[in-house]
Design a protein that fits this description.
Radius of gyration: 22 Å
Organism: Solihabitans fulvus
Number of helices: 14
CATH superfamily of the largest domain: FAD/NAD(P)-binding domain
GO molecular function: FAD binding; monooxygenase activity
Shape: globular
InterPro entries: FAD-bd, FAD-dep_Monooxygenase_BioMet, FAD/NAD-bd_sf
Protein name: FAD-dependent monooxygenase
Pfam family, one: FAD_binding_3
Length: about 425
């Protein structure tokens, strides 16, 4: 076995060694979800995450109904509920002059969880890791692991694992499959030679301030979306509804200007865009961060024994909160494919099924999210002029149900619905 460097390496010390069926590089939502999905099928893994602490990130707060079902299956959902996950049943659309335009919701959907659940991204991380206590025999977690090498074997340079350092000591983690959950800039994806299509360049991004939640019925287990000439402003309840995150659209070229505003100046501009905030009991809280948006898709998800999940495979605009949920369904399907491939002892050929099953589904989600982004993030006087016409669809129950089903993920098949079978012809447990 030989090392292929991905970055700086440590030498001169005997390495720590871990072995499992699967090695997962990247322990955020995509990687941690993959570990849970594998463990639920009896497949062991080593989960390697470079950060020691759980970072506070202004992203990935909304868990969709389909993902709630997966988290329940993996035993994570009770941890999320205990951390204050806040159920959201509908999303309302508003205009600063015309007021309420209408809403769509999840109440009529045929699902065990007819709602979204909103939880700070860092607390979702904590819930996923707390649930590993019930999977200790199958999941080896190593935080603070800096991956710097791939471990290759045989004349065909078959990937057998990764190496690096943890607490200044070298390590080697080996397995039969390596999962790249190392984000949009994935080094494993680049090593595998998988190209990424940049499908669209957006000219806007989102500023992500927070503030106390206004005490209004429109935000009682609901999100709000203000549309208008200046673009989209979203209001998302957090922390059991005590606070709200307020992502609002700004031109990419104006980031420095918006960040230079005092809290009072920023507050005035937020209220001008979303008048409901005028009733909030306080000004902006926490730091003000920006969220750049992209639409990217890897040209394939599998190369040899390397499989991509989450942002390593696809990056989607946050307009309808799909990215994190796509990653969870990646994990669900990939785990079943890996379990089947290991059971049939056909890893080299068996992993290709994951690409066949997930990439077309994700392509459709990316396309729908892009369409919604262009519609909701439109700017200019024409948006105000035609806002009533353009949102008349909110009065059509069938159209609202279609939107709710797509956002909920109910049109994206799980591993169970896909009927992935083992060599005995039995559905995977």
């Amino acid at each position: 076995m030989r090392d292929h460097p991905l970055g700086a390496t440590a030498t001169g010390m005997s390495p720590l060694c871990w072995h499992a069926d699967v090695v997962i590089v990247g322990g955020a939502v995509a990687g941690a979800s993959t570990a849970h999905a594998l463990a639920a099928l009896g497949v062991s893994c080593v989960l390697l995450e470079r950060t020691v602490d759980f970072p506070e990130l202004n992203r990935g707060d909304v868990i969709q109904p389909l993902s709630l079902g997966l988290l329940r299956k993996w035993g994570v959902l009770p941890r999320i509920e205990a951390m204050g996950g806040y159920p959201v049943v509908a999303s309302g659309y508003f205009h600063r002059q015309h007021g309420f335009l209408g809403e769509w919701g999840f109440a009529d959907l045929d699902t065990a969880h007819p709602h979204q659940t909103v939880l700070r991204h860092t607390n979702l991380h904590r819930a996923l890791y707390a649930a590993f206590a019930d999977r200790a025999s199958l999941v080896t977690v190593r935080r603070g692991a800096q991956v710097s090498t791939l471990l290759l074997d045989g004349p065909g340079d078959v990937v057998r694992g990764v190496g690096g350092t943890i607490d200044g000591k070298p390590f080697r983690a080996t397995g039969r499959v390596v999962v790249a959950a190392d984000g949009a800039g994935s080094r494993l994806r680049r090593f595998a030679g998988i190209e990424v299509d940049q499908a669209h360049d957006y000219v806007h991004e989102y500023l992500m301030p927070m503030c106390p939640r206004p005490d209004v019925p429109e935000l009682e287990h609901r999100t709000m979306r203000y549309v208008g000439a200046e673009g989209l402003t979203m209001i998302i309840p957090l922390d059991g509804g005590a606070e709200v995150r307020v992502p609002f659209q700004i031109p990419v070229a104006e980031e420095a200007y918006w960040k230079s505003l005092t809290p009072g100046q920023l507050w005035q501009r937020m209220v001008a865009r979303a008048p409901v905030l005028d009733g909030a009991p306080g000004p902006v809280t926490g730091g003000v961060h920006t969220y750049r948006i992209h639409l990217r898709h890897a040209q394939r998800y599998v190369e040899g024994r390397i499989c991509l999940v989450g942002d390593a495979a696809h990056v989607v605009p946050p307009t309808v909160a799909q990215g994190m949920n796509m990653a969870m369904l990646d994990a669900d399907v990939l785990a079943a494919v890996i379990r089947r491939s290991l059971h049939e002892d056909d890893v080299e050929h068996g992993l290709g099924l994951y690409d066949q099953l997930r990439r077309p589904v994700n392509a459709a989600v990316l396309a729908a999210s892009h369409e919604q982004t262009l519609a909701q993030a439109a700017t200019g006087p024409a948006v105000d002029e035609h806002v009533l016409r353009d949102h008349a669809w909110l009065a059509d129950p069938q159209r609202c149900r279609e939107v709710a089903e797509r956002v909920a993920g109910l049109r994206n098949p799980t591993a169970e619905q896909l009927g992935i079978l083992d060599s005995q012809g039995e559905t995977l447990p």
